[in-house]
Amino acid sequence: MEKELHVPTMAELTAKGETADILFWVGCAGSFDERAQKITRDICRILQHVGLKYAILGTEESCTGDPAKRAGNEFLFQMQAMMNIQVLDGYEVKKIVTACPHCFNTLKNEYPALGGNYELIHHTQLIQTLIDEGKLKPADGHDFQGKKITYHDPCYLGRANEVYEAPRKVLESLDAQLIELKRCKSNGLCCGAGGGQMFKEPEKGTKDINIERIEEVIDSQATVVASACPFCMTMLKDGVKIKDKEKEIEVLDIAEITVRANQI
Amino acid sequence: MINQLIFTLCFIGAILLFAKNARQLYRNINLGRALNRNDKPGERLKTMLLVAFGQKKMFKRITPAILHLFVYIGFCIINIEMIEIVIDGMFGTHRFLSFLGGFYDILIASFEWLALGVLVGCIIFLIRRNVIHLKRLNSAELANWPKTDANLILIVEILLMTAFLLMNAADQKLQLLGGSHYSPVGSFPISQYLVSILPHDPSSLVLIERTSWWFHILGVLAFLNYLPYSKHLHILLAFPNTYFSNLKPKGELTNMENVTNEVKAMLDPSFTPPLSEQPLRFGAKDVQDLTWKNLLDAYTCTECGRCTSSCPANITGKLLSPRKIMMDTRDRLEEVGKNIKANGTFVDDGKSLLDTYITREELWACTSCNACVEQCPVNINPLEIIVELRRYTVMEESQAPASINTMFGNIENNGAPWKYSQMDRANWTSQQ
């Protein structure tokens, strides 16, 4: 973890007359949310560790428009999308990796209708490929050996795009005890943040959705709950805090688990 | 002869009445906006065969899936028996298909087993609804008519199957008595146990056999015409509805072409948007603003509530129920259909799907997680309707909740849903 982190931007590479093999789309949460920033940096550490030539857009990146679209503001969504497509196409981006399932879904599925066509990879898929290629390998005596780990499926990675196996493959490589939650994979339960809910108070009800989800995590007796979405991360973390289980349950992203297990 | 005439008239009458109702349904569904779902016929056929014919998604919940499978297979196979009943009815024959010999015995025996399966399935379904009070089958939106409708269907199916078995039992006894009309044919593994409870004199037996026969066929014809007024319509519409399924990833929301044109014109003043015949309304306020597939979805919904019982908002006590979204859409569509029928064209009745039927509180409780879409055994998509209604409230009325408006403002001004400057986007790179 001591290795100096240098994160190149597309503008920087272009100025040097270089190109990147893959664009790392950081997303708003990954850029601004303190907890998610740690995940972002860990992804950079992985990319750097395996020697992938990547870059970010930096200040040229903007919201994909996902929360606007799902809240019904198609105008705002398309304005964002068209501006982003201009930037991406300006750098001739072909391949994008992102840690946010919402960005992943929007860039992959909703940009093509507006002229933006890219190959999208979620960071869990990238990590899985790197494991398969032997470029990542958990170190001897790493933190997670024998631990009870569970995985929370983000709706926009799982149900929306049917990525169920990649994050599980990462956890399976750990020599840990992988426990499935009662509601998992295509039957997974939402964290409560999607569809614009992240940015508003929940409607009146008997319980918040993240509490319902955390109760399931507690029932599983896992000591680590793995997530693969910055919004799920916030919701799960808040749930653990409200349930006063911070000492017992750790909420970690698949990227953070990889960095720790590989001792990068 | 007179029996044959009465039967033929009943049969033709029922078919004509059904055709009239079906045309009405077709017209109502066509009130929706255009949508092309004619691509990829191979993939569509495969989806239909797996999901509707093969009951694939039912098996997400094993107990009701097995019970439903009994009833479903029973329904499909017993339709073959209907061929014989119709031929016998029209031509005055008795057990016309018995010339098939040994195969006929197998056929009748399998009908009997399936009839028993349907009978047991329906009884357990009734118990689940009325004795065990299964939560998803006793929600608020099912009070009154939907509850009666469900029970009615189950009771009628039980009666029809009982009549079928009783008819076979009386037939067997008459066969044993050696009447000329009742020659010994068929194999009766289930109804043989009913023989002993029947009377011995031939005239009573003929009466029981004939009454059961007429009850069975008239019941089926009446049921056919009850379908368009009932959730039971799914037995027919499940097939086209799965054929016209959304084949794109669940996360992909539709692109609004009319918005694309306006946005292009905004970004590039030289762009002239093509003239469109689409209505200019953004999103949906009423059923006519939805697509025909949304409306077909509404008619296909059988109110099983698998969507609602997996909806995170509903689970945590919020007002949203995806099943209610579908039921509301159907109810409003029926109302609009009647309005058009009475007036020749739609006359404003001061009502609309949004607000009169579906409240904004329901709309804003949705997390767009697709659990409802995933669960539906016949590929209905309640999320599309929710998003269309949200689009109307946001783009036509500017009536989003205040915090959502703040989020919009942030995206517009800062390129992020939070109030951070775009210039600070890469600050994390220097904080190790």
Characterization of the model:
The complex is a heterodimer of chains A (264) and B (432). With 264 residues, chain A is of the alpha/beta class. Chain A has 11 helices and 8 strands. In chain A, helix 9 crosses helix 10 (230-242). Chain A is globular. Chain B is mainly alpha-helical and 432 residues long. Chain B has 17 helices and no strands. In chain B, helix 1 (2-29) packs across helix 3, helix 1 (2-29) runs parallel beside helix 6 and helix 4 (102-130) packs antiparallel against helix 5 (145-177). The model of chain B has no long low-confidence stretch (mean pLDDT 93). Chains A and B meet through helix 2, helix 3, helix 4, helix 5 and helix 6 of A and helix 8, helix 11, helix 15, helix 16 and helix 17 of B.
Shape of chain A: globular
Unreliable sequence segments of chain A: none
Number of helices of chain B: 17
Q: Taking all residues together, what is the mean pLDDT of chain A? A: 96
Q: Structural class, from helix and strand content of chain B?
A: mainly alpha
Radius of gyration of chain B: 27 Å
What series of H and E elements makes up the topology of chain A?
A: HEHHEHHEHEHEHEHEHEH
Percent of residues in beta strands of chain A:
5-15%
Give the integer mean of the pLDDT values of chain B: 93
Order of helices and strands of chain B: HHHHHHHHHHHHHHHHH
For the largest beta-sheet of chain B, the strand count, sense and barrel status come to: none
Strand order of the largest sheet of chain A: 2-1-3-4
Helical content of chain B, roughly?
55-70%
Largest interface: A-B, 69 and 71 residues
Question: Helical content of chain A, roughly?
Answer: 40-55%
Distance between the termini of chain B: 95 Å
Rg on CA atoms of chain A, Å: 18 Å
